[in-house]
Amino acid sequence: MITERWVEQVVYQRPGALSETPMHYCPGCTHGLIHKLIAEVIDELGIRGRTIAIASVGCSVFLYNYFELDSAEAAHGRAPAMATGLKRVQPDKIVFTYQGDGDLAAIGLAEIVWAATRGENITVFFINNAVYGMTGGQMAPTSLPGQVTTSSPLGRDVELTGMPMRIAELLAGLPGAAYVVRRSVYDIRTIKEAKKAIRVAFRTQMAGAGFSLVEFLSSCPTNWGLTPLQALDWIKQQLVPYYPLGDYKVSERVKQLN
């Protein structure tokens, strides 16, 4: 008589850098997925004990509840300035900001431009979902031409408001930037590429190579008026054509890290 023994093996578990606190994000929002990827990389690099997270004002305002890390809350748009101060007084720490498009590309535009210009040795994760998520889905600097939002019900009129701002391209042109890329998380391939970029961004800072930023094209099903699956398709079909995925600045020093 042949008997079979089944042995259960753990193939995945929650990253230690991610807390067990239930997240407040809307169903289908990819903030939670990006949190998970960041936490995985922090664990894999073994830097949890010396990493400081800077939460911004926006949907991710409660970031500090979801990571088992030292954290700080910045005023609206001021996360790069706070990160700069923390990194300068504690250069042995790994400091990152997590910011949305309303926070980084609007009220905080000067902060991020000057942090990149100075080549501050910090890491920025920029979540671009093309709307102000937390405050009701208003038009953001990154909203697409013709995009309907609560403050542009007839669609964004670029003759009145200008064209959407391409942050990765803007910052990549600054000499202080060492690593600037755009990624997304709408399917398995892009999720894997996003995680690799997170790792390179942290390693850039660990090597003292300068300013690093990863922009993520993210979903906002609630404010877009779409289902979670439709929102992922909208990223691919609408956001990616205007905001192409890719590497916009990889310095020679960063290339040597690979």
In short:
This protein has 258 residues and is α/β, with parallel strands linked by helices. The chain has a single domain, classed as Thiamin diphosphate (ThDP)-binding fold, Pyr/PP domains (Rossmann fold, 3-Layer(aba) Sandwich).
CATH architecture: 3-Layer(aba) Sandwich
Strand content range? 15-25%
| CATH C-level name | Alpha Beta
Give the uncertain stretches in residue-range form: none
Features of the shown structure:
Rossmann fold, seven-stranded mixed sheet, two-stranded antiparallel ribbon, 10 helices, 9 strands
Description:
By secondary structure, this protein is an alpha/beta fold. It is built from ten helices and nine strands. Strands 2-1-3-4-8-7-9 form a seven-stranded mixed beta sheet, sandwiched between helices. Strand 5 and strand 6 form a beta hairpin. It is globular and about 65 Å long. The chain starts with 30 loop residues before the first helix and ends with a helix.
Could you outline the blueprint of secondary structure elements for this entry?
Elements (H helix, E strand, L loop, with lengths): L30 H15 L5 E5 L14 E4 L5 H11 L4 E7 H7 L1 H10 L4 E6 L2 E2 L5 E2 L18 H4 L5 H6 L4 E8 L3 H19 L4 E7 L3 H4 L3 H15 L3 E5 L1 H4 L3
Parallel strand pairs: 1-2, 1-3, 3-4, 4-8, 7-8
Antiparallel strand pairs: 5-6, 7-9
Helix pairs in contact: 1-7, 3-4
